[in-house]
Amino acid sequence: MKKTALVIALMAPSTLLAQQTRELGAHEHGHSALNIAIEGTQVLLELEAPGADIMGFEYRAHTQADRAKQDAAIAALSAPLSLFVLPAAAGCTVVEAHAHLVDEHHDHADGHDDHAKDDGAHHTEFHAEYLLNCTDPSAIDRIEFAYFQTFPKAREVDVQMISAKGAQGFEVERNAPVLDLSGLI
């Protein structure tokens, strides 16, 4: 459990920076963020993705069909090794996986929400956190982003990684869905 706390502590600065950047910038469809922290044999992944990329819409699910899409999205996001494929030699297994939907309302300075009357203006976002245990994390020389096959509307993932070798930033795109980590872990 101490290692989990350390991994989370390592992630805090990049998570806070990502949150500050997102709050200052516009909500952008097609773009997700993935934070990765590696400490010992533990790998922590944290994903944030627009609801429109994952479900095909970002309004609140009202119909049975919408709720089914939402449930299917959460189920898919709860299987991290199906979305982010690591080399078999790393021997990674899922210890914990949590995915949920956040409905964002943008309150304005005057204290009211201009979007409250228009469900089409809501922004939903998925958050997922994964804890993996890997028998040989040094064997993680790449991550294949099957994420793009699972979620066709996703176009790009901004990746921040912290390991014993320092912090790294990457951009992974749909047309080049493999992140090369050779020599970085």
From the structure above, extract its key features.
185 residues, alpha+beta, six-stranded mixed β-sheet, 5 helices
Task: Tell me what the structure shows.
The longest helix has 23 residues, at 2-24. The protein has one domain (2-180). 27% of the residues lie in helices and 37% in strands. The radius of gyration is 17 Å and the shape is globular. The strands form two sheets. It has a six-stranded mixed β-sheet with strand order 4-5-2-1-7-8, sandwiched between helices. Strands 3-6-9 form a three-stranded antiparallel β-sheet. The protein has helices spanning 2-24, 51-55, 64-77, 80-83, 147-150; strands at 31-39, 42-50, 84-85, 92-104, 123-134, 142-145, 156-163, 166-173, 178-180. With 185 residues, it is an alpha+beta fold.
How many domains, as an integer?
A: 1
Tell me about the biggest sheet?
Answer: 6 strands, mixed
Kindly name the structural category: alpha+beta
The protein's oligomeric status is: single chain
Q: Percent range for helical residues?
A: 25-40%
Largest sheet, spatial ordering of strands = 4-5-2-1-7-8
The total of helices stands at: 5
Sheet-strand content, in percent, reads: 35-45%
Overall geometry comes to globular
Order of helices and strands: HEEHHHEEEEHEEE
Mean pLDDT: 82
Ranges with pLDDT <50 over ≥5 residues? Answer: 1-11, 13-26, 106-120
Query: Which value, in Å, is the CA radius of gyration?
Result: 17 Å
Instruction: Give the distance, in angstroms, between the N- and C-terminal Cα atoms.
Output: 22 Å
Count the beta strands. Answer: 9
